[in-house]
Amino acid sequence: MVVVTGGTGYIGSHTVVELINNGYEVVILDNLSNSHLDVLDSIEEITSKRPTFFQVDVDDRNQLNTVFAELGTSVEAIIHFAAKKAVGESVQEPLMYYRNNVGSLVNILEQTQKHGISKFVFSSSCTVYGQPDVCPVTESTQRKEAESPYGNTKTICEDIIRDCCKVQELTAISLRYFNPIGAHSSGKIGELPVGTPNNLVPYVTQTAAGIRESLTIHGNDYPTLDGTCVRDYIHVVDLAKAHLQALKRLEGSLPKSKYEVYNIGTGDGKSVLQVVDAFIAATGINVPYKIGQRRGGDITEIFADTTLANQALNWKAELSLEDALSSSWNWEKNYRSRKG
Ligand code: NAD
Ligand code: UD1
Question: What is the pTM of this model?
Fold first, then answer.
């Protein structure tokens, strides 16, 4: 049995689908602070299996004690997604972020210790690299001081896991995600930003749907190929599959370190304008845009060297940027039509 915290969220739900499709029994723990219960229906429609669900706050030790006492020794592994992720909000409310993201991790690691759970996968982020001096970044590229409390929670959590692996019967993998985009090909699960989207692709799809008047591109005077920032956009289904491979590595008998870190991206940097052009090419829908000011805290360019994940996890991103963008559009349309 695999416990997935944050399993009704965007990346969690896609990973649960991959786990179920590969024969795992899944138990989701989520407090639904940024997701909805009907995601369970969608997972069931896609996989014909409904995961067990506990509505719990992972930040609450008592609730966790009760749930893990009930699950007993049947838990073999934990994939820990549950976290708050709004960068701007974390700047305004740092303590809420440290409490939720770091507190939850400490609580969940306590359960691994208490119940002898030895396999752990953690959602980290390329945000730990800050603005790197050289791209692509490898896992040994130096981490820089985080730009935000959110980013800092990822750096701190990585360090806590590393320290616990030194003394506990624990083997763990942190996956440093680059920019996850896209949705499941069924159009039944995807990203559901609350309010006005901060991230590029949800803003693009909502503009294409006519919900937003036009996209503002945050600056075109960066030292990049066309002046707009460059990121490594990874399809969420490829990202979900990386979790499966991480789990297999933890289960397998190949020699490994007690704590390992992997970049999960495509290895290919794309500019904001390239993403907009690719969206228009993939969907045939126009996206009106204007050039605005730079956004505070943005870095110029980052993309991954994924050699380590390719080799040790036997994982490689397979889906294209166009696949990801058309799946995002498909999800946006399906979601709006279901909502009426
Ligand atoms: P999401 O908000 O869609 O999913 C997170 C889930 O965790 C939500 O369902 C939320 O209800 C739940 N949650 C939050 N705090 C909780 C708590 N205290 N107890 C129980 N449940 C709680 O976010 P996502 O995009 O799926 O991100 C998943 C993980 O990946 C997060 O750790 C995030 O920081 C990390 N990550 C995301 C991105 C990205 O661009 N989406 C990039 C890098 C890393
Ligand atoms: C942001 C976070 C990062 C987090 C990630 C996933 C910041 C500084 N970074 O990454 O920590 O892990 O989200 O949640 O917030 N853009 C526009 N117009 C828009 C929206 C975005 O031009 O309306 C541009 C941005 O300036 C950036 C690129 O698109 O150059 C990607 O932005 P976004 O999707 O927000 O991701 P990141 O900033 O890379």
Answer: 0.97
